C-alpha cells in the first residue's frame, strides 16, 4: 500500500467549560476541534451569553463553538444563539426528545444529546436512543455518552465503556471522567467519533491547565496513531 492510501484516524476533540480567553487560545493552538461553553448557572463553568460572545471573538474559522444547556427554555437557547457564533447545541439535562427537536428547529442549529450511562444501561437501550433521536429531527447530530451522577455533568466520573455497542461507537461522543491518564486507552478501546472533556484538563474548576490540555490532546493523537497503524496493517494483510 502506498503512503497516500493510508487513512489517518482522527478522533475529534471538544474541550468543554471554557471561561477564559487564554484557555480558548491554548485549546485552539493545540488543535481542538470544538470548544464548549456552559450555560448552566449551577455549574462552576457557567458563562453568560455576553461572556461567551466575547470569548468567541478569539475563535478562528473551522473551530466549532458548542453551547451546553441543562433543561433550558427556548428563550434561553435563543438568547445564546443570537449573541454568539453557535455551531452546535449540547443538551445535557432531562430534556425530552421532542423538546430538543423543537428548540433546535426554532434556532436552526444542530444538536447532540447527552445520555447519562448507568451501570445497568444496555446496548439495546443506547442503540434505540440514537435511532429514535435521529428519526425525531434532522437537526440531531449525535449522542454524547456521559456517566450518570446525581449532578448533571462535568463530574469527572468514568462509566463502563464495554456497555457501548461496537456499531454505535464510531458515531458517539465519549465523555465522562476522561483525563490524561485514560485518554489513550479510552480512544483505542472505544474508537468514538469524538471525545469531550472538562474537569480532566482543569487546574481548578472553570480554569484549564495548559499542560493537561497538551497532554490530553497528545494522548488522543497517540491513540489515533495506534488505530491508524492497526488499520493499515489490516489492509496490508487482508487487501480486500
Ligand atoms: O461542565 C460542566 O460544568 C457541566 C455541567 C452540567 C452538565 C454537563 C457539564 N459538562 C459536561 O459533562 C461531561 C463530562 O465532563 P467531565 O470531563 O467528566 O468533567 C462533558 O460532556 C462536559 O461537556
Automatic annotation (TrEMBL):
One GO BP: L-tryptophan biosynthetic process
Extent of the signal sequence: none
Domain N-(5'phosphoribosyl) anthranilate isomerase (PRAI): 13-217
UniProt GO MF annotations: phosphoribosylanthranilate isomerase activity
InterPro entries per the UniProt record, alphabetical: Aldolase_TIM, PRAI_dom, RibuloseP-bd_barrel, TrpF_fam
EC number: 5.3.1.24
Domain of life: Bacteria
Catalytic activity, as annotated: N-(5-phospho-beta-D-ribosyl)anthranilate = 1-(2-carboxyphenylamino)-1-deoxy-D-ribulose 5-phosphate
Enzyme class name: isomerase
Any Pfam family: PRAI
CDD domains attached to this UniProt entry: PRAI
Pathway terms, separated by semicolons: Amino-acid biosynthesis; L-tryptophan biosynthesis; L-tryptophan from chorismate: step 3/5
UniProt keyword terms in alphabetical order: Amino-acid biosynthesis, Aromatic amino acid biosynthesis, Isomerase, Tryptophan biosynthesis
HAMAP family found in the cross-reference section: PRAI
Family statement drawn from the similarity comment of this UniProt entry: Belongs to the TrpF family.
Protein name per UniProt: N-(5'-phosphoribosyl)anthranilate isomerase
